[in-house]
Design brief:
binds uridine-5'-diphosphate-4-deoxy-4-fluoro-alpha-D-galactose; three-stranded mixed sheet; binds nicotinamide-adenine-dinucleotide
Length: 350
């Protein structure tokens, strides 16, 4: 069985955790990352945690020739494709950068995969493709729509993958739609390391707790939710990483492979939510983090943030049925591991 996996964006937040989970599950990993939003130190730390050097190539997914060299040098079973830019606000200011990086970059990657007949892909999609959902919990057949270039880039890639699966039945393409990834590796050695002031709630809370930021602004307390603040489906990043292992294991069983069973048919386009199925409000998360960190987290209520929705949580049934995967870790675990990472590394990897 072929078990070598190319992990694009593997030096990033979700990628690093997934590399460790893949290694523990017996997969061989090659990381391909341009380090535009990550660092070599993250790669060093993966190597320390797995007890051997990780195979790392510094490169850009838009560089077809470099990708060709990588595919020529390795026999991959498939690709986990994390590489992408992810800041919603920046995507509004720089749409061409986002479409170029996330959409053109993915097209280049898919073209090179086709050239080397590697047709198994797990793609980092997002719950953002559901826009403002009509019903909760959100299942995979819910309508999709996006309002910002980042979300549009994820949706565009999903459409491309759907078209590709229709055009050629030998592709097996699993977009995993992540809900809100938070938390860190239990060792405290790897975690989320935002470049500037964090846009997302959990890193903001943890930087207030550690004293780097003064006060949290809670965007809106008049939503039709349990306490008026936004409700999200926070999922521990190590659970998320296990979801990728489960998706690859599924592909190992169901996707056609040059060296696998000749009789296996391919999977086609198979979108799957990765969430816990549970909603937690902003105020509940602040309370949980305060309890775990034993630090004060001052906050003020502010106006709603443009583009935000009231509530978003997954139906996680499809992942359980097809992949045999479900999230195991609690909000307390997410806060504990975030706090360990933040307090052990107040300046991230720097
Ligand atoms: P991240 O920024 O920490 O990781 C992305 C990695 O991709 C970085 O290491 C970056 O250097 C690399 N990269 C970016 N453009 C590249 C390019 N052109 N070529 C090579 N490498 C490139 O982000 P993350 O939180 O780990 O997210 C991983 C993926 O999951 C992204 O595609 C993101 O859009 C998606 N996603 C993230 C979230 C979230 O809240 N973190 C939610 C839903 C989906
Ligand atoms: N929030 C605050 N204050 C902050 C930051 C966030 O009150 O400083 C609130 C938001 O208003 C929202 C909730 O916390 O109600 C969660 O916000 P995040 O920014 O952490 O997460 P989002 O749900 O807005 O978006 C995240 C990712 C997107 C992804 C989406 C769905 O940032 O990239 O989840 O997966 F598309």
């Amino acid at each position: 069985m072929k078990n070598k996996i190319l992990v694009t964006g593997g030096a990033g937040y979700i990628g690093t955790h997934t590399c460790i989970a893949l290694h523990e599950a017996g997969y061989e990993v090659v990381v391909y990352d341009n380090l535009s939003n990550s660092s070599r130190e993250a790669i060093n730390r993966i190597s320390t945690l797995i007890g051997q050097p990780i195979d790392f190539i510094e490169g850009d997914i838009r560089d077809a020739n470099m990708l060709r060299e990588v595919f020529a040098a390795h026999q991959f079973f498939g690709v986990i494709h994390f590489a992408g830019l992810k800041a919603v606000g920046e995507s509004v200011a720089k749409p061409l950068l986002y479409y170029n990086n996330n959409v053109s970059g993915t097209i280049t990657l898919l073209q090179v995969m086709a050239e080397y007949d590697v047709k198994n892909l797990v793609f980092s999609s997002s719950a953002t493709v559901y826009g403002d959902p009509e019903t909760l919990p959100i299942d995979e057949v819910s309508a999709r729509s996006c309002t910002n270039p980042y979300g549009q880039s994820k949706l565009a890639v999903e459409h491309i993958l759907e078209d590709l699966a229709v055009s050629d039945a030998s592709w097996s393409l699993i977009p995993l739609r992540y809900f809100n990834p938070v938390g860190a590796h239990p060792s405290g050695q790897i975690g989320e390391d935002p470049n500037d002031i964090p846009n997302n709630l959990m890193p903001y809370i943890s930087q207030v707790a550690v004293g780097k930021l003064e006060m949290l602004s809670i965007f809106g307390n008049d939503y039709p939710t349990v306490d008026g603040t936004g409700v999200r489906d926070f999922i521990h990043v190590t659970d998320l990483a296990q979801g990728h292992v489960a998706a690859l294991n599924y592909l190992q069983q169901h996707a056609s492979s040059k060296s696998g069973s000749d009789t296996a048919s391919s999977v086609g386009f198979l979108p799957i939510n990765l969430g816990t199925g549970k909603g937690t409000s902003v105020l509940d998360l602040v309370a949980a983090f305060t309890k775990v960190s034993k630090q004060p987290i001052p906050y003020q209520f502010a106006a709603r943030r443009a583009g935000d929705i009231a509530s978003c949580y997954a139906s996680a049934d499809k992942a359980k049925e097809l992949l045999g995967w479900e999230a195991k870790l609690s909000i307390t675990d997410m806060c504990q591991d975030t706090w360990r990472w933040q307090s052990m590394n107040p300046n991230g990897y720097k």
